[in-house]
Amino acid sequence: MCARTKYIYRFAEGDASMKSLLGGKGANLAQMMQLGLPVPPGFIISTEACNRFLENPNALMEEIWQGVQSHLRELEKETGKRFDGEGTPLLVSVRSGAAISMPGMMDTVLNLGLNDQSVQRLADVASDERFAYDSYRRFIQMFSDVVLGIDAEEFDFLITQKKRELQLDFDYQMPAGAWKELIEKFKTIVKSNTGSPFPMDPWDQLYKAIEAVFNSWNTQRAYTYRNINKIPHDLGTAVNIVSMVFGNLGNDCGTGVCFTRNPSTGEPKLYGEFLINAQGEDVVAGIRNPEDIQQLSDEMPEVARELTQTAQQLESYYKDVQDIEFTVERGKLYLLQTRNAKRTARAAVRIAVDMLDEGVLRGAEAVHRVTPTQVEQLLHKQVDPDADITVLAKGLPASPGAAVGKVVFDPDDAKNQGEAEEQIILVRPETTPDDIHGLFASQGVLTSRGGMTSHAAVVARGLGKPCVSGCDALEIDLKNERFTVGETVVKKGETITIDGTEGTVMLGEVPLVQPSFDEDFRKLLREADKVARLQVWANADTPDDAAKARDFGAVGIGLCRTEHMFMAQERLPVVQRMIMADRKEDRITHLNELEAMQTEDFTGIFRAMEGFPVTVRLLDPPLHEFLPDEVELREELHSLENDSSADAETKRNELQKKLDNVLTLQEANPMLGFRGCRLGIIYPEIYEMQVRAVMTAACTLHKEGRKVIPDIMLPLIGTREEMRRLREAVEETVKTVLQEQRITDLTYLIGTMIEVPRAALVASELAEFASFFSFGTNDLTQTTFGYSRDDAEGKFLAEYVRQHVLDNNPFHSLDVSGVGRLMQIAVEEGRQTRKDIQLGICGEHGGDPDSITFCHQLGLDYVSCSPFRVPVARLAAAQAAAEPA
Ligand code: PEP
Ligand code: MG
Q: Helix 572-580 vs helix 584-608: angle between axes, to the nearest 10 degrees?
């Protein structure tokens, strides 16, 4: 007989290591129980059950139902309450909880077990009719929304009407009688929507709620959230069934959310919000404005002390900042949830560094506490401190960074406009999980209600988007798509700026600037450098870029694209004359002019990179890229057709010559054409000029007593003979310059890019002449797949990814099995020929964290990426080297 799968676990049977089976919430509740902390009794139906349910709902429910009933009977014993029948009613919450936290994305039902009879018993036991009927109506509303799929607004409308009638501001002021009246009306709504009365049998309620929570794994919003956050779709959610404790029994009760450190700034101080006489949803929904957790010690000193102690205990156990939900029932503290807190990038860095200093974390652990995406967020724009700004309204600084965009009220509009690459700010009274697509598409979010832990705030922080929440000066008119602040009216489509660091809103477009790194950030990255094996170099073409790269911590330049120096406005005419020269002597004259300019460029770059290697790539693109467009030339010629002046004649001749050259240089497949080292072989004088410029600049610095490390790199090499000839030619020029300058002790390297599959396949032959390989994975991806890097992304690649023909865009994230395989061959064979060959990557993949992990595994020496990605790459290199704890 085969053993039946165990699907239900008591808290006492679990711990924090069982997250994939019990979900994060369940595993942590179990763990808190192991730690002796006050957790209300409960049990968990596993994620495995969810997956089985999604395949065959009836079979699973049949399999677990008896077990659910007997576990509930256990709860009855533990609590001394009754789920059905007489006695103090046992009410439960039925909560979702996946292995990876998906806040607010799946469903939860609270106060389950209430019906027309038990509500009265609850009122008697609590000696509080208002509380009992308030709980009952909440239950009907939630159950109707989550399980029966009835629009919540139908209920809200009646409540608002009643409050107006009684002239009340808040729900909690509503007397029992009013709730009783409303409950009857609610039941009618249910009947008219579903054709059946509201279920009065607690078992029936429970059965349906479990099904609803399982089904909520596959709602559109949960699915979208998983896609955005790259969470697998087959994890499933657990269902936590926990006996209810009440924060709304009176003024010795309350509920709140607290973080063991500030999740916005990282400040090591208890941070959070609470509400007296309320249930958890009131805090999260942002309906009443909660109080600061620091005030708790004034109102409930004992509870505040216990909470502070518990928070510390949990943080030391998990070695990470905790986000804790708690409820106080009649003065007794209960913990309803703990999880590793979501935090802003700034907070993540500060917390990692503080915990390192406190000795809680080792360097290898601390580098895993900040994600590469968070590092990117630290490069977020901020309002220019010198800008003259007028603040229109002030709310809460819910998620840092500043954003400019057109006001949009409807999340669907936001999605459409965002996809059309418009810059937009989503403005809502408050957001719900159903608005996630609109949030994702916006530059930032502004809400008139809700606190720092409201939905909009939490989601925006997770997405790294600026958010101003609780901006109550805003009167939002969703119907007419506009908001007003005093006299000012802002309509849909008008531009505003929000500053989520300050919590401010400004009219129009305010100038923004990039932030600089603070000391904590630098410290974390220094730690990362200690942990990493890969070095991080930068792709930089100008002294300014080089200086930026150094500031961001690059320890070399892996790619200096010299053609960018040819494109400058005053140089292009010289380059064009050089290209169009009929005779070699003329070409050399123009090249000499360019040499002086390039020497100056290289001197600046070497100076900025003193003591670090600078890899200069010789000219790579096809020459036609430096000439004007054919159509433009023809139009210009056409416009001069009827002009018989001498000037026009000269101009016509000039244009005709350019056109002839353009036509001669035209190619059907220029990326596979006359470019890279092929140019260097056919026009040796171009490379000779460039090598002279590099070495002359190097000699200047060397004579000043500065350390220069010039590396000369050949592009698009595919054969041994190309490599051999060009190495010989480069060496010849280098020797001549060194002799002219009378320098004997300047070391340099000559190497090649690996950009075509043939180069990887004959790497052992190339390594005879190449002292380094640098993988040019942009071209290598293009030539391995046969996808044009200029056309494929706009034509079919996005659709390929959408249809899962490819997992990723291979130009963004390295194709490990194809391009990666070629790299592996080149690494192995290159090393066989030349043991100490220097190996790096300078294609765009050098800044992509996943690709960096692969480069680490391959044993490269460095990755090279654009200066702004250097910090991300430093962290990713460290993470690749250190296993997460
Ligand atoms: C490459 O091909 O990966 C590379 C770095 O060179 P470029 O992008 O300039 O062709
Ligand atoms: Mg290339």
A: 140
Query: Hey, how many other C-beta atoms are within 10 angstroms of the C-beta on 666?
Result: 13
pLDDT reported for residue 662 = 83
- pLDDT reading at 250 higher than 90: no
Cβ(626)–Cβ(575) below 8 Å: yes
Q: Which pLDDT band, with edges at 50, 70 and 90, does 885 fall under? A: low
Reduced to 3 states, what is the DSSP secondary structure of residue 321? coil
Tell me the H-state helices in 285-337: 296-299, 301-318
CA–CA distance, 56 with 214 (Å, rounded to integer): 12
b/e sequence 697-713, b meaning 16+ C-beta within 10 Å: bbbbbbeeeeebbbbbb
Q: Which residues contact 594 (CB under 8 A, 6 or more apart)?
A: 566, 571, 574, 575, 578, 689
Closest residue to atom 8 of ligand 1, CA basis: 778
Q: Strand, coil or helix: what is 675?
A: coil
Angle at 717 between CA 716 and CA 721, to 5 degrees: 155
Percent of the chain with pLDDT over 90: 70
Element (H, E) at 750: strand 749-754
Tell me the ligand closest to 561's alpha carbon: 1
**Tokens describing residue 278:** 């309320």
Q: Tokens representing 144?
A: 């109707």
Q: Residues with beta carbon inside 6 Å of ligand 1? A: 559, 561, 620, 755, 776-779, 842-843
pLDDT of residue 808: 86
Contact 307, 326 (CB under 8 A): yes
Tell me the percentage of the chain whose pLDDT exceeds 70.
Answer: 97
Through-space distance between the first and last CA atoms of the chain, rounded to whole angstroms: 40
pLDDT tens-digit series, residues 138-187: 999 999 999 999 998 899 999 999 999 999 887 878 999 999 999 999 99
Catalytic annotation on 842?
A: yes
Q: Which DSSP string corresponds to 391-441?
A: EEEE-EEEE-SEEEEEEE--HHHHHHHHHTT--EEEEESS--GGGHHHHHH
Please tell me what DSSP assigns to residue 621: S
Query: How many other C-beta atoms can be found within 10 angstroms of the C-beta atom of residue 850?
Result: 16
Among 566, 755, 793, residue to substitute to test ligand 1 (most atoms within 8 Å of Cβ): 755
Structure tokens at 753: 């890019």
Contact 770, 788 (CB under 8 A): no
Q: How far is CA 801 from CA 44, 228, 230, 806, 815, in A?
A: 37, 14, 14, 5, 13
pLDDT given at position 367: 96
* 518 — pLDDT class (breaks 50, 70, 90): confident
CA–centroid distance, 778 to ligand 1, in Å, is 5
pLDDT of res. 1: 44
Strand stretches in 421-500, DSSP E: 424-428, 444-447, 467-469, 475-477, 482-485, 488-491, 495-499
CA gap 668, 653 in Å, rounded? 26
Is 804 one of the catalytic residues? no
